[in-house]
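Sequence, structure tokens reproduced for absentees:
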Amino acid sequence: TEELLKEILYNTHEKILRYQEIHSETRGMGTTCVLAWIKDNELHICWSGDSRLYLLRKNKLEQVTTDHSYVQKLVENGIITKDKVSSHPDRNRITQCLGSNAAKAEPEYLKLKLLKGDRILACSDGIHSMIPDTEIENILTVETTITNVIEKLIQKTNNAGGYDNITVVVCDVLKCKKGYLYFVQKIINKFR
């Protein structure tokens, strides 16, 4: 599974580079990505860049992925604290992405067990750069339907300035059985 998901991201990276060779106006553009594959009762995650995957379990939000960004390196090295990331002048500087030779994709992978009642959020930095994790946690906890979660996340993001593209995927784990996992998901991709 890990090899498959990484291969998908590497292939996408190469296709973007080839596209840029043909379409000069797209040179220098790149994208971040987080893939999530639910197989049986496990969530397999692979990502490159600063798009994130969060897990809400028992009303507690956890950022599962780690940003591939300059400020994340500063946090890891103890140079700044996590609460300073959103105001740092280099907060949008990523260390890897798809479609860039300068910030070449080196995807990370992890997996985790899912439980009934889990809520999964995958989103671009258009969301998490505009509203704090505490607010994301509150929305995911308070709103009962996926549609309401997405609408509230987009509304809060736009109210905070909403200067970037917004991509949101929300998935609720409704029932877990041996060999089966039932869930509902909704995807919204909003371009500014």
